[in-house]
Design a protein that fits this description.
single chain; about 180 residues; mainly beta; Porin; ten-stranded antiparallel β-barrel; 13 strands; about 0% helix; about 65% strand; globular
Length: about 180
Amino acid sequence: MKYEVPWLLVHEAAAASRTGLGDSVAGVKWRFYDPGEPRGWQISTYPQYAFNSPDRADERGLVAPGAHWVLPLEFQRSVGSFDVNYEIGRTLRTQGAAEDVWFSGVVVGRKLTPRREAMLRLQATAARSFDRNGILLNSGLRYILSRPITLLAAAGSGIEGNERPAWLGYIGLQFASQ
């Protein structure tokens, strides 16, 4: 189980930068297939419920208004000293005017120390109607502060599509139970 809330910084071309708390996210990961290393891919699902934090970030355009479910299917495998993760899924809006979204992406990560991991992520999103889409490329860091608190940080940019930020930054704390 996990709970996280990020601090967001978004800068779009021809607009002022905006900062604030992102959506609060609670989720549970279930790995239902694990053949063991080095035999193959692990497969899991990671349903999460996201809801607006109380600082009105939705009114400032940092997050979409309302709550939503994130329903991914994830595939993970170690390749040498790297971990490769692929996910595909859907974001389902339960409230608010924003449209449901399809997403797919790949993350390649590498442990730098027992407590630090660096990652590179490429993610594509498309509205249910496929009239809005975007591709985001970012790099990130995961740093275990103490069990169960992890610092998450990422920075990136939209590289394609009609729904892409010029620059996006993320920093957050993740509280996880084992």
